Amino acid sequence: MSRYVRNLIIALAVLAVLYGLNFVFAGRMISPYFSRILMLSGISITLAVSLNLINGFTGQFSIGHAGFMAVGAYSSAYFSVNYGIRLAAALGDGTLGWIVALAAATLVGATCAAVAGLVVGVPSLRLKGDYLAIVTLGFGQIIVVFLNNIEAIGGARGYSGIPIVKSFFWIFLIAILTIVIVYNIVHSAFGRALISIREDEIAAEAMGVNTTRYKVMAFVISSALAGAGGVLFAHFDGYLNPKSFEFLKSFEILIMIILGGLGSIVGSVLGAILLTVLPEALRGFAQYRMVIYSLLLIILMITRPQGLLGKSDVFKKWRARLRGKREGENAITESGAGTKKEER
Amino acid sequence: MSTLLQQLINGISLGAIYALIALGYTMVYGILRLINFAHGDVYMVGAFMGYYLAGGIGIRGAQMLMGNPDSNIFGRILAHGLLGGGVLQPSLVTALVIMLLAMAICAALGVIIERFAYRPVRKYTRLTALITAIGVSLLLENGGQVVFGADPKFFPELFKKRNVELFGGASINTADIAVLVIAFALMVGLQLIVYRTKTGRAMRAVSFNLNSAKLMGINTDRIIAFTFALGSAMAAAAGVLVAIRIPRVDPLMGILVGLKAFVAAVLGGIGNIPGAVLGGLLIGITETMVVGYLSPTYKDAVAFAILILILLFRPSGLLGSTVQEKV
Question: Which one of A57, A63, A134 makes the best mutation probe of the B interface by having the most chain B beta carbons within 10 Å?
Fold first, then answer.
C-alpha cells in the first residue's frame, strides 16, 4: 500500500501547493514582471525536458522541436478560440472553468503534436546523425511554411484573439508532469532500451531491442510534450506568429539542453531557467545578447562538451544517499561511464 | 514557351549560386564529416565584404579608424570604397576585382573559424562539432547584425546591367550571364585544384581516410585549413554574385540560402563535387518553377521537400555511392 498511497499524497500535495501559489500569483503580491519570467521559465522547462528525451536519452539528434511546439500551439489556439471559450463560459467563466478549458486545449494540442511527431518520425528516424538533424530541421521549416499559408489561423499576419490564460497552476503542472513522465520513462525498461540505442544502436539491435519502434515512440512522446509546451505558449500572450517557431526557436531549446547537459533532466531544467532569465539579465546589452549566447555556446563546446551537469542524474544520487550505499555505487558508475564516452 | 525558357534561365542562374555554396559544404563534409552550418553565413559575410569594398565604410567609420580619411588614397578607399573612391570605374573587371578581394577575405575567415572553433572540438564526438557549427553560425549572424547593422543594405551596381533579348521572347540580364560565366569558371578551377594538383590529391586522400592520410605524411591540419579556405572563397564569390543579381544584402541572408545549398549538396551526394553542382542547379530550377507555376509562398518548402524525398529514397544522393555500415 505504502508506495502508491505515498505517491498519491505527494501528487495531491503538489497540486494543492500549485493551486495555492496560483492565487498568490494572480494577486498583486508578486510583481507581474517577475511572475512573467517565472511562467516563461516553466514553459521553457517543458520544452527542454521533452527535447532531452529524444536528443539526450535516445541519442537521436532532432533540431525541429519548435515545429511540434507550433503544431501544439496552433491546434490548441484554434480549439480555444472556437470551442474553449464556450466551454469555459458554460462552466461559469471562473478559474476552475478555465482550467478545464485549458486542460481540453492541452489534450488537443498534445494529440495533434503527437500525430505530427508520428508522421515526421516514422520516415525520418530511419536516418542517423547529421542526416536526421537536417531532416528534422527541414520538417520544422515546412511546418512554418504551411502555418504561413493557412488563412484560418491567420497566416503570416499571425493568429490573434486567443484567450489569455496566464495560469501559474497550469504551466507548472504541465512542467512538473513533463519532468515526471520523462523521469519515469528513463528509469523504466523502455528508458533503458532508449539509452542502449544512444550508447550503441547496432549492439542494442543485436540484443533484441526493436530500435525503430523505440525511437519512434520516444519521438512521438517528445513531440506530444513539446505540443503541450506550445499550448502554454499560445495561451500566454494570446497571439501566435509563425516567425516565433522558426529554427532559431529550435536552436534555443537545443542550447538549453546542451548547456545543462544532454541526458540530464536536472540539467535541462537548469538550462531552461538560465536561458529564460539570462536575456532579462542582459537586457541592458540587448543587441549583444545573442552574440554573447553564441560565444558561450562555442566556448562551452570547446571546454566542457558534455554540458554543465553532463549525464549525471542528481535525483538518483540524492535518493541513493538517502537509502544507503549500494545504489549509490551504481549511480556513480553509471554517470562515470557516460562522461568517459563523451570524452572519447 | 517563353515563360518556361525565362524560368529556366532564372533557375539556372540561381542554381549556379546554390552550387557554388554547396561546393563548400560538400568539401568540408567530405573531409571532416561535419555539416558546417556557418557556411551560409560566410556567404553573407562575402556579400557584405563586396558591399564595403565597393562602397566603403563611410566617412565617420574611416575617421574613427585613421583620423582624416581624405588625406591619402587608403583613407579615401576606406571611406568611399573602390568604386566610390574613384579608384575603379563600374565595369566587369571591377566586379571581378571586388569578388576576388572578398574571396580572399572570406578564405581567411574560413581558416580562422576552423582554427579557433572546429579544430579544438575535433577530438570530441561529431555531435559536439555540429553544435559548435551551430554556435559559429549564430555568432556570425548576430555579430553581423551588430557590426553591419540589422537593416538591409543596397548593393552598388558594379557594372551596367541591361537585358539581352533571346529568341522566343525571353530575355537574359547581363548580370545573369556574368553570374553563369564566373560560377562556371570557378567550378572548373576548383575541379582542376582538386584533381590536378598535389594539394588536391592530399585533400582527396584526407577525405578518404584522415588517419591513413596522416600516416602517409600529409599535414592533415594544413589540408583541412586549405579546404575551409577554398570553400569559404567559393561562398564569398556566391555572395558577391548574388548581390550583383539582386542588389540587397542583410546579415540574415545566409540562413535560408545556406540550408538550401546544403540540401543541394545532399541531393547530389554529399562529398561529391560534381554532385554538388548538379544538386545546386536542380534545386535552383525547381524553386523558380514552383514560384513561376505554383505559388511563391511555398518557395521555401520546396528544397526541404526535395531533401526529405531524397533522404528517404536514395540517402546517398544522386551521384553518391552507398557506404556499407560496419560494426
Answer: A134
| Residue found under cell 531491442 | A209
Which of A124, A133, A145 lies closest to B298 in CB terms?
A145
Closest Cβ opposite residue B128 in set A124, A287, A305:
A305
Which residues, in sequence order, are CB contacts of A115 under 8 Å at separation 6+?
Answer: none
Of A134, A291, A301, the CB nearest to B128: A301
- pLDDT recorded at residue B323: 62
Spatial contact of B276 and B25, defined as CB atoms under 8 Å apart: yes
Global confidence as pTM:
0.84
* CATH 2.60.120 assigned to B2-313: no
Domain ranges of chain B: 2-313
pLDDT digits (tens, 9 = 90+) for A156-202: 888 988 888 877 888 899 999 999 999 999 999 999 999 999 998 88
The answer to which of A45-49, A148-152, B192-196, B274-278 has the lowest mean pLDDT is A148-152
Which chain A residues are Cβ-neighbours of B138 within 8 angstroms?
A: 251, 290, 293-294, 297
Q: Do B136 and A294 touch (CB under 8 A)?
A: yes
Q: What cell numbers appear for A135 in the block? A: 531532416
Determine the Cα–Cα distance for residues B165 and B181; give it in Å rounded to an integer.
18
Preferred mutation among A291, A299, A300, A344 to probe B, highest tally of B CBs within 10 A = A291
Cα separation, A181 vs A183, in Å, equals 5
CA distance B235 to B194: 17
> B300 and A149: CB-CB below 8 Å?
no
Predicted pLDDT at A33:
84
- pLDDT for the residue numbered A261: 85
Question: How large is the ipTM?
Answer: 0.85
If you search the block for the grid coordinates 522541436, which residue do you land on?
A65
Residues of B in contact with A123 (CB under 8 A): 308, 312
Q: What is the pLDDT of residues B182-209, one digit of tens each?
A: 989 998 999 899 999 999 999 999 988 8
